[in-house]
Structures are given as C-alpha cells and as structure tokens.
C-alpha cells in the first residue's frame, strides 16, 4: 500500500455512506424536533400595517408565533453587513423578521413553531398580515432613474459606486487611450440573473440544554455562523457549537450568514427549551435566499491593427437586489477578473451597485467572474471580427507571457490585496485548447460555429485556515479543519495530503470538516479556496506531527531523527527496516501516563522504564500527545486559469442551440486528486451551460418571481449537458508549500462567453446577452434579416 | 384523522399511522426514519425523492402514503446486498458519479429500475433514462458513465 497519494485519483471516502442513504443532511437530524415555518411577504414592496395572528391560535399542535415585535432587542437587530467596503456608502441588510417594511417577495414576516411542518404551515395560512403596498423597483435601468426608492434613505437606489483605473505605461488613462486608438468599438451587454440552486435548500436545527447551544446548519461556514449566533443571542462563544453536517450543495448561497433562520431557530429553541428545526422548501429557496449574475455593462474598447487592446472602459450596473449583506464582492470580482489572461494598455472600470425590490444578490459559483469574462471575451471576439482576424490570434497578442510572472494588474482584488498573478502559461494553454477542439481544422458551415473563452480566477483567498492532526494510540490519524464541505470530496483530498505527508495508509486517516467542536478557527468554503488554504494548513500540521514523531522515535530507537522515515505508519531507520517503531507506539510514548487502559498504553506509565527519571515527563517546550496544529495564511490569492472551446449547431428553423463538442484546458497548479478536479470542472461547465442557454430569474413589473419552481426555472438535465473533454496544464503556485491553486468554480466561469462566441460564429449575428434562448435567437435572426 | 397503513419497505412490513395528507417522502423520512430518500423540490421535478414502488420508480413527494398501503417499496437503504453494495452503487463510486450526494439516492433508484428493464442501454437510452433526475454537482458525465459501468457489472455478475 503506497502512501504517496498526492496526485492520485483516489476513490472518494465519502461515497459509501452517501450511496447507502447513511448521509446525515440537515433535515435528517432532529426527528423529534419541533418544526418552524414562515409567513413570507407576497409583496415586493409594502408597509406592514398590522399582523393578526388570532385565527392561527386554535390550530392543534401550535407552539408559538413570533413577529419582529416579539424579538428581544439583540435578536431583532438588522443582520450584519459581513464585508464592509468604503465604497459601500449605503449598505443595507434585512431584519430577521420584517420590521415595518418588506422589500422583496419572500421576506420573512412571521415565524410559526408547531409540532410538525404540516401544522406550522396550517397556522401560517391563517395568519393575516395587512400590507400597504408600495410601488416596487424592478429592473436595473428603472432603479437607477431613482423615481421610486427601495430604501427611503438611499438616493438613486445606489448602494455603492466604485471606480478603479489603471493607466497605460505612458501615463494616459483608458478614456484618452481609447480616443487616440486606431480603432474603437462601443457596445452594451446584458446578463440575466441566475442562482446557486443547490438541491438541498438551507436549513437549521438547534438544541439548547439549559447551558449549551448546539446548532446544525446547512452552511458553508460553521465557525462564522457560530460567532454570529453567539453575538446575536448574547452567549459566550464556548457555549455555542455549530456543525455543518452533510451539505447537499452550496455553490455560494450558503456562505451568506447569518440567515434570519440561523438566528431565529436557535433563539426560539432556547426560548422554548425545545429542539427546533427549519428546512427550507424549494419555493422558499427561490424567493428568500439569494440570486446572482444580473448586470448591464457598457463597454468601450480602443485597439491597434493587431488587435492589441490599448484602452478598455467598462461601466457596470450591478443588480444587488434588496440588501447587501455580502457587501460588494460580486461587482468587485467582475471588475478585476474581467482582465483575464490579458495585459491591457489602460483600463478603467466603474460600477454602481443598485438596489431593486428583488431577492438579494450574493455570490454564486464564479461570483461575478462569468460576467467579467463575458465582457472581455465578447470584446476580443468583436475586435477580431472588426479586424477580420482569427479570434485566437487577437487573444494571443494580448496574453501575458510566461516570463512576465508575477504579473501585477495594478488593481485591488476582492481580498483587499494587490491583483498580482502568481504563475501561469497562457500561450501554452491557448495552443492546447486549439489542439483539443481542432480550432485550425474546423469546418465552418451555416448553423455550425466554434467559440472560445479564456479566464483567470483568483483562488485560495485568505485570511487563513487551520488544520489539526492527531495520531492516537491505536495508530489512527484524525485530521480536522474548520471549513466546510458541500460535495468537493475534502474527506478524500485532505486525507491524501495527510497520507503523503505522514507516510500513513489512507485507511487509517479520517477527516472532519465544518465542526466547531473539532476546529474553532476558520473562514469558510468559497472562492475556490478549500484545497489551497486548508490543504496547505493540514500539510503544515502534518509536518509538525511528523517532526515530533521522528523526535520521539529517535529517542526510542537511539537513532538520529534525520536517519528516520515513516512508511505505512511505521517509523524506521532508513536502510534498516527492522529498527522500527509503529506510530501507534510513538503516540503512546508521546503521552506520559499514570493510568494504563490497555497493554499498549502500559508502556507510557510511570514504572515502565521508558522515561528518564531525571527529566520532567513532559519536557519543556513539549506538549503531551502526538498531535499538531498549524495555519496557512496566504499573502495573496493564487491565480488559476483556463480556456474553454465549443462547437455548436443551431437549427435553421427552430433556432434550437445544440452544443456538439465542449473542450476544457485547465490549470489549477498541482492536482491533489485529478478525478475530483475533473468532477468539479464537469459540474461547473453544466452550471455554465445553464447560465448560457436556460437559467434566468423572471420578475414581472410587480416584483413577482414568476418562475419560482423547477418547472419553470430551467436547470440542465443530462440531456442538455454535452460531453466535456478535459486537459490539464500544471503550473505550480509559488505562493504555497503544496503548489496548488483552487478549482471549485473554474468550470462555470467562461461558459456563457464560449457559447455566445460559438453561436455568433454559427449565425453571423452579434450575441450580447446571456442566457440566449431559441426564441431570442429567432428574434435576433428576424431583426438581423430586416 | 389518522389512517393505519402497512408499507413493505425494503422487505420489511412497517405499520404506521398517518394522516391522509402525509406525503410518502415524509412518511419514509420522518415516520419510518429512512432519511436516505431526499426531498429536493416537493413538486416532482428534481427526482431526489425517487423510490421504487413494486419495482417502478415513483416520486415519493407526489405520492400520499395512504395510497400505497400494502405495496412494496425499495428505498436507497434497501439497494445494497447483505455483503456489499449493489452494482449500481459500486459503479457510481467507481466513476465518481456523485459529489454532494443529495440527488444520489434518486439516481440510484432510477438507474436500478432502468437496468432491470433494459440491461444494456445505449447512450441515448441512458440519457433518456436519467433525464428525469436533476444533479447540480456532477454535470452528469460521470453519472452516465456509471450507468454503463453498472450495466457491465450486472452482466458480469449475473
């Protein structure tokens, strides 16, 4: 059994339980708990005149009904603004239950607790809320006119306005560079809303034993939920534990916290002294969690005869929905990651984050990048078309070259740190994608086109993650990290790292994530960061444990630690395999005992003769136990990259769009588990196909989400997703010990750009919207023919 | 008003008292404690709640428990053999056909029924066969691969 597992397609250790129905998702817990349900606003914008709970009081099984008025001051406060930013001058967040005004359909107004969910919903149906409807603000362009306001004290509905500008080498700004460029183009792009839409919705389950609170949440950050809950409930942090059980997908929406329910359910559980659970249903997820993507972009580009971009000026209207709990991370990411693998002459980007009476906008896989990449890649295609050049040729002249790393884009990234690309090889990547899709040999025909899209993704953002590794006296290795898992295979990938670092068979390693009882300091799983940040932290913790194990074993074997290595869980002298001691025994020796509990541990007791009577049993500077804890805090993000290409066919009559081939070249540095990375890419591409062709949130003029079900919000089935051909380039990151970059979001990022590029090629019509449906393409054809 | 019903779940007769409106999915999960069957949309589109009713895949979220009184049900908990996972389960693991695992029980039940009816499906038949189940993680490629692999394993072991 080899323990060099880093880089191997190791079978997932999560799978046996998930394949047999033994997973423990949020709603699988707390079988005897009371159930909560919510009365949610049917209006996009309204003042609450009165709430009459009277008719619900006789429902058998009803336990409690709460409105905002019933909440203690601390619990009823506005939810935190998680990521403040100086440009977010008018940040606004919701209250756990609506206070006087509702600002989108789905906002929670009343919480009902009952014996079961059926009963709770019965009671909800009988509660009468008297609303005074206000005129809703729907649509970006209507919102910025500011005739109606989402928040009375936010003029023009603009929550944030930010300009970032990078001058050309000669000091000229983007606008001047464009004015004086040999060629210029100006155009507008429209990007629709979509949403993370994990198949398991959100959910919270809380238990209060009179002193300690335990909360389970289907979250991407249990440590931060814990801090938010402790603060809202006024509890000392050590009395609160938060656990993310098996989580049925996240894709961004579950990084937001605390959700109203994450405060209300624990509070009510404490107040009532009863276990309480709430599981979000699908309609609730559509209208009361979060969406993303919606933007309008106004673009101006100036370029030379080769297609080199001399100046780019982008103005973005970003639809932020009703609230900004996650700050302005999404438009910041759009603005900065728009640059992709290119070095531009000068760049100016300006965005306004705009409030509307719709569901709030927070990151969804890709987190603003799909919009930025759509903008840049549409620009590249338009330049190529204008100059009559091959689209890959225009990209090639703009690429950052391998010898130019680290490459400073001279902007501020989403982590507040400089946007400096650590490593990459973009020309090689372009060569690979052209070869993989057969770009140069592609035979164009009416209704058959080829497209390309390139991106760079900042991954592995800080501030930090930690890892704890403990070897117990049975020789097992227990690894924990604070961030959470939603299907990324962390139990496998982190075990591979530990197996490789420690020289222990993977079967003896177990990994726990997202449980504050095991690891209290963490940030969370988002921004393609888990493998980079926790992976490196675990590797560093393993190195500490290894060093300690070798030190103790050296004493026992009377050898020099530098002559020792660990193979299959046994420490031995290099070249003398019989001079050895198993890690289990090392773990025993690491913990001097007074009391033995078995034969093995008897070796560590005080009369066993294994310790010198002249020294304290635990030497100065040492700690008992064979364990280690370490943290990895990256100086900056590490930048993964990829290029995708596709062949599409469009039906001449129905305008139906079929993806015939889809190819991906991907570089996330060193791969821990190529099978898992490919799985992440496949899933990302499928979500990208949804965003490119199907998914949109359709609001009517009253602010009603008219497609709030899986019947009408079209997510791809197996029949809609093409076979994905994948190739990897491995450019290690110089920033972290393992040389890895993140991979979680990659697949989704360029897909809309790629499909638009291919449709445009097939049809000869500019594609400036995402998604594009057959009827929209049909409309474009009709307009084009006139 | 409650109704006494008997469901034969994974070969075991289970008596349970439920109101007429109790969904089969809720009955399995909350009354019988078989939480492997998941609920993703409660309107019959996602397929997470798929179970086998007398061998045929059905949406347990669109079925009232009282309507299947006396019938035989197989849930994900009943797919494995006494000593090891079923060929479909093994194929999903081998081909990395699952990530978060939430939709997986529905796919496993659907595919088990599909291969019982058609032991050697073509690519088109596999796509069609799983096109009633949503997965938000995998992009389906490895699920489709797993179905073909499961067909191979079933053929080898029959």
TrEMBL record, chain A:
Stretches assigned to the Aldehyde oxidase/xanthine dehydrogenase a/b hammerhead domain: 20-135
Pfam families: Ald_Xan_dh_C, MoCoBD_1, MoCoBD_2
SMART domains: Ald_Xan_dh_C
Annotated region (Disordered), positions in chain: 605-627
GO molecular function: iron ion binding; oxidoreductase activity
Lineage: superkingdom: Bacteria
Keywords noted in UniProt: Molybdenum, Oxidoreductase
NCBIfam families: CODH_aero_grp5
PANTHER family: ALDEHYDE OXIDASE 1-RELATED, XANTHINE DEHYDROGENASE
Name assigned to this protein: Xanthine dehydrogenase family protein molybdopterin-binding subunit
Species this protein is from: Nonomuraea turkmeniaca
Automatic annotation (TrEMBL), chain B:
CDD domains (alphabetical): fer2 (cd00207)
Domain 2Fe-2S ferredoxin-type: 3-79
One Pfam family here: Fer2
This protein's UniProt keywords: 2Fe-2S, Iron, Iron-sulfur, Metal-binding, Oxidoreductase
The UniProt record lists the keyword Plastid: no
Pathway: Alkaloid degradation; nicotine degradation
GO molecular function: 2 iron, 2 sulfur cluster binding; metal ion binding; oxidoreductase activity
Domain of life: Bacteria
PANTHER family hit by this protein: OXIDOREDUCTASE WITH IRON-SULFUR SUBUNIT
Identification of the protein by name: (2Fe-2S)-binding protein
Organism: Nonomuraea turkmeniaca
Lineage summary: Bacteria, Bacillati, Actinomycetota, Actinomycetes, Streptosporangiales
